[in-house]
Amino acid sequence: MRRSLSETSIAVLFRLERLQVELDSIAQQVAEIETAVLNRRATVAPASVLEGLDALSGNLRSIAAQTDAHSHDHTQSGQGEALALGQRIQSTAQAVGERIAQMRNELNSATSGSERGEEEGEGEPVISRQVAVNGVRGSGPLPIPTLVNGPALALNPVLYSSSLTLPQPGLRVQPYNGSCTSATGIERMDTATSSEGSISSCSFQHSNSLSSNGEGGAIMPSDTVLYSWGRTDLGASFQEVIPTPSVVRGEGGSEGVGVGVGGGRGGGGGGGGGGGGGGGGNISKSNSIVPTPPLLKPTKSKYGKKNVANLCSTLYHTVAVTTTGEVYGCGVNEDGQVSPDKEDQYLWAPVLVERLLSQRVIQVSCGENHTACLTSSGAVLSFGNNEVGQLGHSAGATTTGEIVRSSRGSRRVEPRTVVGLGGKLIKQIACGYLFTVMLSSEGEVFSCGVGGCVGGQDGKDRFQAERVDALMFVPVACVATGASHTLAITVTGNVWSWGQNRHGQAGGGEETAVQEPRQVVGLSGVRSAACGSAHSMFLVEGGAVWGCGKNHRGQLGLPPCPSVSPVPGEEELGGGGTVSPYRAPVLVSQLNGLEVCMLACGDAHTLALTKSGQVWSMGANSSGQLGTGASATNAEPSIHPSSSSWRATEVQGLQTAHVFMVAAGGEQSFALGLGSGAAATATAATATPKTIIGTAVPTTAATPGLSLDESTLDLIRKFSVIKPATSFLTTAQLLTLIQQAASTHQPDFLERTLFDIFSSPSLLNGSFLSVAHSSSLTAKSSTSRSCSTSTLSGLDVQGLESIYVAVMKLNHTPLLSRLMHAFSTALDHLLPVAKSLYDPDSLRCLLAYWQCPLNSNTSLSRDTVLKLCEAIVSLPGDGRVQLFAWARADYPPHLFATRLLRPLHSHLEYHLKVNFGKGRAVPMLAVIMNYLYAANERIREDGREIDDLDEGGREEGKRLIPAEQFANAAVSALSVESLLHDLGTWKALKEENKNNINKNVFAFCRFPFLLSAEAKQRLLHGEAALGQQQAAQRDLMRQMFSGGPVSPFLVLRVDRARLLESTLAQIGVCDAMMLKKQLKVSFVGEEGVDEGGVKKEFFQLLCAQLFDFTYGMFRSTESGREVWFSPSHGPSFGSDDSQEYQLVGVLVGLAIYNSVLLDLHFPLVAYKKLLGLPVGFADLKELDAEMGEGLRKLLEWEEEGGREGGCGGGKVEDIFGLCFEVDWMEFGEVRRHELIEGGREIEVTAANRRDYVRLYVEWVLDGSIRKSFMDFKSGFDKVMGGSSISLLKPEELMLLVCGTPHMNLRELEAVARYEGGYDKSSNVIQWFWAVVHEMDLTSQRQLLMFVTGSAKAPIGGLGKLSLLIQRAGPESDHLPTAHTCFNVLLMPEYGSKEKLKERLMKAISECRGFGLQ
């Protein structure tokens, strides 16, 4: 039977069948509610159930009304089947309605007259039930709730562009809190006749238990009311317009009947000639009399009963979509842009677009002569004119097969699906004059149409949809288009723009056109935008409004800026003169305090909707489009196109309309309000029209507007059938899904969701954002594609960690494998374009991928981690710097170490073991670790550390984690031979090109942080042994040719009485080669062979003498724990102690070279200077904490009033009383030094205090000790020059020289050996360790000095020592003795613990001799 039906009849039957499905869903929900009431009568809140029943009743009434309308359409061929189906629906609806009424009566009786609000206030639980999505459970794509305090994802209406979605003023959508099931995916439409895709369902728990809107019209009759005002002559006002025909004469002399229009397109052709400026039926401009007067006040449209849900209007036509998915249009139809099937050039009253009845349209947008529709399946249909590809139907120019020619000869294209989207689900569309922009659910932007407006680099027309590459992976939340420009707003509130910019409508700069997207400077926290023909308006966080572009009619709400010398781009101002446009966004201060929640722009006017429901207008009023009750100058406003209003004025007649949406066309305006059914529970107060006089209106205005209570907001939520523009997820939403998967043991939907999110970089970039970032956003850099200087990524690091941990706890191997596959897929997309990722919004996903705990599992993530590293290495410099700055700023130490660093260690060890370091994996992993190490150490790209003085003296942590954690176990475990070979390779590379090391040759020594301190010590000792061997061989070769004594050792014979002089005399004649020999020491007049003990004593005695404060070479620091070079020995005082300082340097070098620990107390800054590293303010604070604190207060002092919790309140010079001079005490005398010439007379002020601090730091750490330290360093370099010492960090060099003061004698016990009859179980041995562990720290150090000759532990701890305890005969009164050369302790077999303790304490406290062998 259906084969004989018309296409329209089939569509009607299709609609009725869907209504039947919706009815079945409602019946099931009623049954679920009834079951819940019966099972949990004691805990169910009756008020909540009643609200749910109210919503279902409204849905039933809507279904009944629509069924009655559909079943009586087309009475010819489809009547019987339609009536039968309609009767079945009506019968079922009546039965369900009766059951609802019965349940209501029972519940009302149960409440005993109690107020609903009181019962809800008692905290009774709300019944959780499944809400119908798109009309039925399990129909339509999964809606993702709007983020709380997040971007306004619904697009505001804009001219030529923005489709009008239902806003949610003041709405805070409940977080996702329900279970979701989905089919395998959404099948996108590839042709105009494709059906909607597969379905998904979702449970949401709202506070009021109201259901969302249904697909087939689950909306109460007259729930929305459409108002329009302004121009009516073209029929685009959505009113029923009856034009007055006029007799016109065509070019051929024949007369015809046409309709003239004033100031716009017009002129219908009549007869053979055409008239009114039109010929052959073409529409052209005319100045004939307007046939219909404009609407000066908002007027209800009788077509509002269609329940309009979405509307878009241009200068020439308007298209609207209803809550049931039908599309209606009116206005100029020359190219079929309103209805392709209608031959009329003008459609004076809205008509149903029957070609779209088989589709459920949820959003529409209009261009100059084309229209685009978004269906519930995420496909885009377009029709109208396609001469420049604005319909996006094919890869090339329009083909004849696409064109449907009317009898008038116009070119019109029937509705077809936009191609080139690659299966992407589209969430939002926006049309410009000659182009179309589409936003996918992943936040990607596609475009087609005229070149120069589509965001392409080549500027060519696009005849099919193509991705805007400049926004690759930038998470765009919504888009808005003007006549020839586009705005894209990201989830983080940043704005990108491109297209024509002659008037500055693209948001900045003097360029007349912006080819590729660039960021708009000076805007942050933007939530939505609207575009006019040549102006743009921005709605930011908190309801503030900004504007830029053309302002010749006051459409920006900003004061006119008269131009003295008119230039191109400036427009004539009414009354003469010209006005300059605003080329950069400016705050519209006259709207402050109104809490604007929505904006709409016409050709030259702007509408603003407030949270209280008021509508304000400003700009051109030539056709009464401002709705103020009259045109600005004349009852016939079209004669005076310059009529305008520079002040925002409240629109008349909407005070009780419950407006929740505004839209604007060329010279017409629209508002959607709540109808009688929907507004029954809303309260309203009549507001008096009010004009803002350029000043901010207080939030507590005297004239109240509409008060949107929770019930009204629920209705608005129910009307909002348009899904959010993008499907970004919050942490809470995904955690809910994970919890449901864990409780139901059905992770299939979670698996698909995880794959969708993590396989899309742009979607991940907009998901899991921190609340702080979404509410407080930083401004961007002035360059179009450069990185911002923000220090926070905006990623909810802790939230993402909780997601990963929750997923891991599921212990579902297929899900984990699927997650890693998503990572790999996303990185495959990232790699080809990584080198062009400049914007921070496109980089955030890299941190999210990096943070995954699975990356430490080399079997799961081997390839993925390498792809991630390659992507990071490929980033441009600015992007890479930003990424690692985020890593330092956002990650707490434990996550920095476990999530960012540990995976790199794991994979480096894996590749060293499996591939022996061959290939690109090891070098790339080392490079990434180098970047991470620099971030941890706060090292710039140029290798310099970030000094605290650069941060204004603020206290900043030097490191997140200890530098030792960067040492890799596998690299550190390499043999000495391998390390020496690597060191040789590195030195050869440095020698070949000192300024630019060949990066194609890899050497671990380029990344010294990979080596542990122990490994570096082994390398240094191995290098020393090799150097000593080479020195001995050279000495032997020299003896062979020149004669003389030969010794493989550097032997020093020193006199204890003249230790310093005798040492200087012998060291002074040694060249660098001699100093590299192994050191042997003997004291004059003393017998013994130096096996290490004599050498240790020599260093101990010499250090004590050189660092004696009475000698004057060094002084104590303020803490008293360290020594520093004495300023009196600087170059300003003429003293020359060069030999002594050189001897100290040689002494330190020889100690390192011969593996002797010294009892030195230099601060860390001394070792930094030895290694040639820069020093600064942080080092001064370590050297002299009190002085550092004083300088910090000086830098932070605020002269005017101070600050809370800080300091301030007076001038710097009065409070601190400083000048550019320093003084100190030296041997009881005051010494002074001017930091600059005449510094004694120069006061330190707020203006020059940073200079003072910098000069003071430089003088203390460098200038005052320059000569002394250079002598010291020259002695050190004489021994250690050319060695691998540069691989050491300052902390490691300090450990190598002095050892570590932290001792754990249990480590020494674990490695101790026993001989001569002792073993671990011997009583003496057990007593010995018990006594040792009972000692205080001082005694333990004395014991260590007694046995080893050093009071400190070597690098790696006491476990690196080899202690041997030997039996020294039977019990006796002899004291224990030691051989420090070999770390041997000889101890008699004492008879008791007490005697052992007494003898041992006496030995370590009184004995100073060494047992020599």
Q: Can you walk through the features of this model?
A:
- The protein has 1413 residues and is α+β, with helices and mostly antiparallel strands.
- The chain has 34 helices and 47 strands.
- The strands form 15 sheets. It has a 5-stranded antiparallel sheet, with no helix packed on it.
- A hairpin with a 4-residue loop joins strand 46 and strand 47.
- Helix 7 runs parallel beside helix 11.
- It is elongated and about 130 Å long.
- The termini are far apart.
Please give a handful of descriptors for the protein shown.
1413 residues, alpha+beta, five-stranded antiparallel beta sheet, 34 helices, 47 strands, elongated, disordered N terminus, disordered C terminus
List the helices and strands and how they pair.
Blueprint: H1 7-39, H2 46-71, H3 79-111, H4 116-121, E1 180-182, E2 200-202, E3 224-230, E4 246-249, E5 255-258, E6 264-266, E7 284-286, E8 295-300, E9 308-313, E10 317-322, E11 327-332, E12 346-352, E13 361-366, E14 370-375, E15 380-384, E16 403-405, E17 411-417, E18 426-431, E19 435-440, E20 445-449, E21 462-467, E22 476-481, E23 485-490, E24 495-500, E25 513-519, E26 526-531, E27 535-540, E28 545-549, E29 571-572, E30 578-579, E31 582-587, E32 596-601, E33 605-610, E34 615-620, E35 644-650, E36 659-664, E37 668-674, H5 710-719, H6 731-744, H7 748-758, H8 761-765, H9 771-775, H10 797-810, H11 813-830, H12 844-850, H13 858-874, H14 877-890, H15 893-914, H16 921-937, H17 969-972, H18 976-992, H19 1013-1042, E38 1049-1054, H20 1059-1067, H21 1072-1075, E39 1078-1083, H22 1093-1106, E40 1114-1116, E41 1123-1125, H23 1138-1153, H24 1164-1170, H25 1177-1183, H26 1185-1196, H27 1212-1216, E42 1221-1226, E43 1229-1234, H28 1249-1261, H29 1266-1280, H30 1290-1298, H31 1305-1311, E44 1313-1315, H32 1323-1334, H33 1337-1348, E45 1364-1367, E46 1377-1379, E47 1384-1387, ...
Parallel strand pairs: 38-39, 44-45, 45-47
Antiparallel strand pairs: 1-2, 3-8, 3-37, 4-5, 6-7, 9-10, 10-11, 11-12, 13-14, 14-15, 15-17, 16-17, 18-19, 19-20, 20-21, 22-23, 23-24, 24-25, 26-27, 27-28, 28-31, 29-30, 32-33, 33-34, 34-35, 36-37, 40-41, 42-43, 46-47
